[in-house]
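Subject: sequence -> structure tokens, single chain

Hey, anyone have a minute? Need the predicted structure for the following. Not urgent.
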Amino acid sequence: MTYELYYWDGIQGRGEFVRLALEAAGADYVDVTREPGRGTGEMMRLMESATEAHIPFAPPFLRDGAQVVSHVANILFYLGPRLRLAPDDEALRWFANGLQLTITDFVAEVHDTHHPIATSKYYEDQKQEAKARAAEFVTNRIPKFLGYFERVLAQNPDGTGHAVGNGLTYVDLSLFQVIEGLRYAFAKAMRHYEGRYPNLMKLHASVKSRPRLAAYLASPRRLAFNEDGIFRRYPELDIKP
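Reply:
Had a minute. Here:
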């Protein structure tokens, strides 16, 4: 059955973490808001439904037949075994979920560099606060998170260069997206930091070269980074640590 992904049209955002899993697995899916005749209106009607039993709070969410699953980490935990992007071992599946939740925390901090006060306010209304928040993020939080994931890769007992187990998982795909996004939003900082994290950089290159992912990244299905998404390029926020 075709998966239906619901997310805002025109931005990668949090929905991209789900798209990467679907694309890497060659899954049959529809990006609903980008479909002619469907669009954002269908997504909003579902979220505001007075009859839907499992209404999601916000996108992204996934429909698989009658099943609706919301939140990136939850969606990937659901899809992982179905797409062969999760370990068979139950303990490793829970570990993978914990890593994905840590990525969720990291992505939230990325968002807050340009919206430190309120999401309802424009970036231009909180630029001074954003500069302070971004400086803290670049100086302390990027190395904190990337250092952790570097250790995870180095200490994987399978020694395969993957985050969990001996094969590609959705965590690897999400780490690829994090590196892509940081390179876009904080190019100076990443040029400064990348040499510290050889395992992460090797994983990023490995994911990018996978045939299905390479084809997706070169296709119009892969939306470009822009200043409406999570990873935004504001030069005044991109300081060298």
